Amino acid sequence: MNVVTMAQPTDVAAGGPQRQRIIATAAALTTRSGWASVTMSRLADEVGVSRQTVYNEIGTKPALAKAMVLDELGRFLSVVDKAFDEHPEDLIAAITAAVRGVLELAEGNTLLHAIVSATHGADTELLPLLTTHAESLLSTAKAVVADRMRPFRLPFTAWEFDTAIDTVVRVVLSHVMQPSGSPEETAADIAWIARRVLFP
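User: That's the sequence. What structure does it adopt?
Assistant: Structure tokens below.
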């Protein structure tokens, strides 16, 4: 059987320092005052640039929302990379550490909490980027996980490999959004599922 060859993961932290400052400031404003409070004018004032510069670097406000979510995703994926780096020869240990690390980061992530807890108005515009319109987030996360799992040379077809990764990533995301136990417990549960799927 042939292991799938997938595209390399997107650089979720792409962009120069000014773009990154704009995104970081938008995240800070969202955490502090809610997404509804974030306007291009206010963002420009906070960063100390013109509003046109904000538009040039980011685009529209929906584009800013997507950039902000993907930038935050980069922090979570760095945890995944670290877990696989620490367990280069033990896939289940790497998955366990990655899931635990991601869920621990989610527990104290103020931006994630601001998005998930938003209940009305413009503040709810961010939530679909983590749920019903999470295509960019999912494709980026899946690409990173696939890249880290590929060296283990699992005897799967392309479809089987992609399906296994898609399932694991979606399960982890669901626990990020709505935890059902401690990070340690959830990581152990997901690792058990992964073991049964990957090593039947």
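Confidence is low (pLDDT under 50) at residues 1-13.
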